[in-house]
């Protein structure tokens, strides 16, 4: 791979080992900006103000209060202006709470690097890097924050698998300053280049930064998939359509109602109030507010489960997942290799096998195999022999070599690597070779990673030339990355709740199959296929639902699988950790990046980040998401059961010629009940048990539930109108009629909250008590009643309110039970 190094980014920069000066840093930042791939724009305080001012209730109150002021009713105007204040503060608080739930999580995505500036080593945020910076990288500071060119290298090997998909280490070399000083633009081999998101495995080096942010290699990959757009979720689409339809309907009825009131002989102020009240009742501003707030609560709750949400709408989708496409290593498994088997020849002890294995390993590197060897050696108190020279592992050689001091004037050459390579260089007989080859196959089928070790005594020399054959084979090392113990229970939960789990891995089919059996991915033997055997026909795509494991899968094939599953109607979660996983993460309904081992690019594009890389965390998030979705359903059900009688009574009563039921101050009263109840009363917590989702991928309420809500809403509207009409006809007292209607509607709100939540939350119990208590106080206290244009009710009137409410709740219970039968 070659790349045209962007040396022009370094023009007018003094290329020295002292690093950039303050003036050069300022100049470069002015030209190139910050080292950010996905920019976050917008002032949160301005967003808070704009979101608050979007509430139509605020504008309605201000407009009506202004009208009262201009017609000379100063007292009513002051009341309405004053009533606007708590609504503004409540909206502002809710928007701020939602912002705060997500903004605090962003700091967990940042990283720091060490650079040389003004001849000093300083630690800075990776976002502050500019072209020309000299970054110090080693096995301790191993993630590359930008693209650049290696000026200095010492035994440097880099893992570029997150960018290229290739698992083997890449040797790096320094190009020197002469090229940077003499050339403005040149072709540079990838041996001399470092790429953002990759990591140092061995050695150390100085990287001169050439490109940052969107101009890096992984930045280009991310922005190449921008055409993969995030579709609206079914609920988002439903809210949008509901809002649009009700707004159109409200406008139509407003004009009709205003015209009818004028025709009936009422004044223009009465007509304006009638139309305005109906508009506020009909415009469903609570629905998007509740939706946004519940997502914010979901973000906060999921963070407690090690789930960092970057796209809040994923909180709604996570509860309705039907398909999980998961990695194996580090997600299903622990992600840490353990040396579990030491298979030695008769002449070799396990201690000697460990000692020679240590010699052919890198104590300062990040190779999980080497780490496992040193962990086992420490437990058994095996000491590292004196190493004279080592040759690091490379993919083409598939082995690591070490030279040790031997007896007298001899040396020992130790090789450790792929069994087929080591066995081919050994002096084993054909019979023994067959036996050890079968042993390697048996261990691999058991889900183990297997390495072989051999040693040869050579005549002392200073050239350290590796022999090509006749090594004495001493044994095998078998490593396990065991499944996480909690994954099995999570798989059972998925199976009980209709969630299909598909393991997608680049590993050998035998290894993947062993892990799949261990976690119980299928009650019978799991069905395992290799990705290259898929022919992508329609029949094959449908068969994906029956497959349990796809092995030897490339990132492009993973993307095809995700698209095929979505096309077949599944709501798909995908896990990924590398740059090559970016397209699949973006294409999924919910992309989940690994927080511990994931690349920065995967985290940037994912909807969710797991801070512990654990499959069970995904399932815990689904449990929490299902409860949040059910909470949202209850809240929306409450809103509909309140809004239907609110809208219909506000329209029908004036149309049939009676005085207005709701004045602006009554609308304020109802909004101060409806908003807190919808937002806080339905925040039930998950009990960790199975929960069948009501309302599948493309529906929020079932047809029976929708019919129940509509029937109950209409019947209660008739009860409300009847109560208002009787109260008015008793003695032509409009204040008395309004009191009966407001008491009935307020108590209905409390009854619906109690019915839906069964009083299981403290907030629900508080809202029920506060709604009923304040309604009684506001109606029965003569001073409040006068301000609200009401009159105190008699004991018989309250008896009628309680009786009507009880009858409605019994009817609701009956119809609700029938709607739950599917």
From TrEMBL:
<dbReference type="InterPro" id="IPR044492">
    <property type="entry name" value="P_typ_ATPase_HD_dom"/>
</dbReference>
<dbReference type="InterPro" id="IPR018303">
    <property type="entry name" value="ATPase_P-typ_P_site"/>
</dbReference>
<keyword id="KW-0547">Nucleotide-binding</keyword>
<keyword id="KW-0812">Transmembrane</keyword>
<dbReference type="Pfam" id="PF00689">
    <property type="entry name" value="Cation_ATPase_C"/>
</dbReference>
<dbReference type="Pfam" id="PF00690">
    <property type="entry name" value="Cation_ATPase_N"/>
</dbReference>
<feature type="transmembrane region" description="Helical">
    <location>
        <begin position="667"/>
        <end position="686"/>
    </location>
</feature>
<feature type="transmembrane region" description="Helical">
    <location>
        <begin position="638"/>
        <end position="661"/>
    </location>
</feature>
<feature type="transmembrane region" description="Helical">
    <location>
        <begin position="763"/>
        <end position="783"/>
    </location>
</feature>
<feature type="transmembrane region" description="Helical">
    <location>
        <begin position="275"/>
        <end position="300"/>
    </location>
</feature>
<dbReference type="InterPro" id="IPR023298">
    <property type="entry name" value="ATPase_P-typ_TM_dom_sf"/>
</dbReference>
<protein>
    <submittedName>
        <fullName>Cation-transporting P-type ATPase</fullName>
    </submittedName>
</protein>
<dbReference type="InterPro" id="IPR023299">
    <property type="entry name" value="ATPase_P-typ_cyto_dom_N"/>
</dbReference>
<keyword id="KW-1133">Transmembrane helix</keyword>
<keyword id="KW-1278">Translocase</keyword>
<dbReference type="Pfam" id="PF00122">
    <property type="entry name" value="E1-E2_ATPase"/>
</dbReference>
<feature type="transmembrane region" description="Helical">
    <location>
        <begin position="246"/>
        <end position="263"/>
    </location>
</feature>
<feature type="transmembrane region" description="Helical">
    <location>
        <begin position="707"/>
        <end position="725"/>
    </location>
</feature>
<feature type="transmembrane region" description="Helical">
    <location>
        <begin position="56"/>
        <end position="72"/>
    </location>
</feature>
<keyword id="KW-0067">ATP-binding</keyword>
<dbReference type="InterPro" id="IPR036412">
    <property type="entry name" value="HAD-like_sf"/>
</dbReference>
<dbReference type="InterPro" id="IPR001757">
    <property type="entry name" value="P_typ_ATPase"/>
</dbReference>
<dbReference type="InterPro" id="IPR023214">
    <property type="entry name" value="HAD_sf"/>
</dbReference>
<feature type="domain" description="Cation-transporting P-type ATPase N-terminal">
    <location>
        <begin position="3"/>
        <end position="73"/>
    </location>
</feature>
<feature type="transmembrane region" description="Helical">
    <location>
        <begin position="737"/>
        <end position="756"/>
    </location>
</feature>
<feature type="transmembrane region" description="Helical">
    <location>
        <begin position="795"/>
        <end position="815"/>
    </location>
</feature>
<dbReference type="InterPro" id="IPR059000">
    <property type="entry name" value="ATPase_P-type_domA"/>
</dbReference>
<dbReference type="InterPro" id="IPR006068">
    <property type="entry name" value="ATPase_P-typ_cation-transptr_C"/>
</dbReference>
<dbReference type="InterPro" id="IPR004014">
    <property type="entry name" value="ATPase_P-typ_cation-transptr_N"/>
</dbReference>
<dbReference type="InterPro" id="IPR008250">
    <property type="entry name" value="ATPase_P-typ_transduc_dom_A_sf"/>
</dbReference>
<keyword id="KW-0472">Membrane</keyword>
<dbReference type="Pfam" id="PF00702">
    <property type="entry name" value="Hydrolase"/>
</dbReference>
């Amino acid at each position: 791979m070659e790349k045209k190094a962007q040396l022009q980014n370094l023009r007018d920069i003094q290329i020295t080992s002292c690093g950039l000066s303050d003036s050069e840093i300022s100049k470069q930042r002015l030209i190139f900006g910050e080292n950010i791939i996905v920019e976050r724009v917008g002032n949160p305080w301005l967003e808070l103000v704009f979101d608050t001012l979007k509430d139509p209730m605020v504008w309605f109150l201000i407009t009506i209060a202004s009208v009262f002021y201009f017609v000379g009713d100063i007292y009513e105007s002051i009341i309405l202006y004053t009533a606007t204040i708590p609504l503004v503060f409540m909206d502002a608080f809710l928007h701020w709470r939602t912002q705060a739930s997500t903004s605090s999580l962003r700091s967990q995505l940042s990283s720091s690097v060490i650079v040389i500036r003004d001849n000093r080593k300083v630690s800075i945020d990776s976002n502050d890097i500019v072209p020309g910076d000299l970054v110090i990288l080693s096995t301790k500071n191993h993630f590359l924050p930008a693209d650049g060119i290696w000026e200095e290298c010492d035994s440097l090997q880099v893992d570029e698998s997150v960018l290229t998909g290739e698992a083997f280490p890449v040797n790096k070399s320094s190009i020197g300053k002469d090229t940077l000083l003499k050339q403005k633009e040149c072709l540079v081999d990838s041996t001399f280049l470092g790429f953002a998101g990759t990591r140092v495995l061995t050695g150390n080096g100085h990287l001169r930064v050439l490109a940052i942010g969107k101009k890096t290699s992984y930045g280009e990959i991310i922005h190449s998939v921008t055409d993969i757009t995030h579709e609206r979720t079914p609920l988002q689409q439903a809210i949008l359509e509901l809002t649009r339809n009700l707004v159109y309907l409200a406008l139509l009825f407003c004009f009709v109602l205003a015209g009818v009131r004028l025709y009936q002989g009422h004044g223009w102020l009465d007509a304006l109030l009638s139309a305005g009240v109906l508009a506020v009742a009909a415009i469903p501003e609570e629905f998007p507010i509740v939706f946004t707030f519940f997502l914010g609560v979901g973000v906060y709750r999921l963070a407690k489960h090690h789930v960092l949400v970057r796209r809040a709408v994923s909180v709604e989708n996570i509860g309705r997942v039907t398909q999980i496409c998961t990695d194996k290593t580090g997600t299903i498994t622990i992600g840490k290799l353990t040396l579990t088997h030491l298979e030695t020849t008769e002449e070799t002890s396990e201690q000697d096998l460990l000692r020679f294995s240590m010699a052919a390993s890198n104590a300062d590197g990040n190779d999980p195999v080497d780490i496992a060897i040193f962990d086992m050696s420490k437990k058994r108190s095996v000491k590292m022999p004196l190493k004279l020279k080592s040759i690091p592992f490379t993919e083409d050689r598939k082995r690591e070599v070490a030279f040790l001091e031997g007896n007298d004037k001899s040396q020992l050459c130790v090789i450790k690597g792929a069994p087929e390579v080591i066995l081919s260089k050994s002096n084993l007989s054909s019979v023994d070779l067959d036996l050890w080859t079968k042993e390697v196959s048996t261990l691999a089928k058991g889900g183990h990673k297997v390495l072989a070790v051999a040693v040869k005594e050579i005549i002392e020399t200073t050239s350290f030339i590796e022999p090509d054959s006749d090594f004495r084979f001493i044994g095998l090392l078998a490593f396990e990355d065991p499944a996480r113990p909690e994954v099995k229970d999570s798989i059972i939960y998925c199976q009980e709740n209709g969630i299909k789990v598909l393991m997608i891995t680049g590993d050998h089919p035998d290894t993947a199959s062993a892990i799949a059996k261990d976690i119980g991915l299928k009650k019978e033997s799991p069905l395992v296929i290799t990705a290259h055997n898929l022919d992508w026909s329609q029949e094959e795509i449908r068969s994906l639902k029956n497959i349990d494991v796809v092995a030897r899968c490339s990132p492009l094939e993973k993307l095809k699988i995700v698209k095929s599953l979505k096309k077949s109607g599944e709501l798909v979660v995908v896990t990924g950790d590398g740059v090559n996983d970016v397209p699949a993460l973006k294409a999924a309904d919910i992309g989940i990046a690994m927080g511990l081992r994931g690349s920065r690019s995967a985290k940037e594009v994912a909807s969710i980040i797991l801070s512990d890389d654990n499959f069970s965390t995904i399932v815990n998030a689904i449990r929490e998401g299902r409860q949040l979705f059910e909470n949202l359903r209850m809240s929306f059900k409450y809103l509909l059961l309140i809004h239907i009688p609110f809208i219909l009574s506000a329209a029908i009563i004036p149309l049939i010629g009676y005085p207005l039921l709701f004045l602006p101050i009554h609308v304020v009263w109802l909004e101060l009940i409806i908003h807190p109840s919808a937002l806080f009363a339905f925040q039930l917590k998950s009990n960790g048990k199975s929960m069948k989702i009501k309302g599948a991928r493309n529906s929020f309420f079932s047809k029976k539930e929708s019919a129940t809500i509509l029937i109950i809403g209409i019947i209660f509207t008739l009860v409300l109108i009847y109560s208002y009409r009787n109260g008015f006809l008793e003695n032509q007292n409009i204040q008395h009629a309004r009191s009966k209607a407001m008491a009935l509607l307020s108590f209905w709100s409390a009854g619906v909250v109690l019915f839906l939540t069964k009083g299981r939350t403290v907030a629900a119990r508080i809202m029920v008590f506060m709604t009923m208590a304040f309604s009684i106080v506001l109606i029965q206290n003569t001073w409040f009643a006068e301000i609200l244009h009401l009159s105190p009710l008699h004991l018989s009137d309250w008896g009628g309110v309680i009786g009507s409410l009880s009858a409605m709740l019994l009817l609701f219970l009956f119809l609700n039970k029938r709607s739950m039968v599917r």
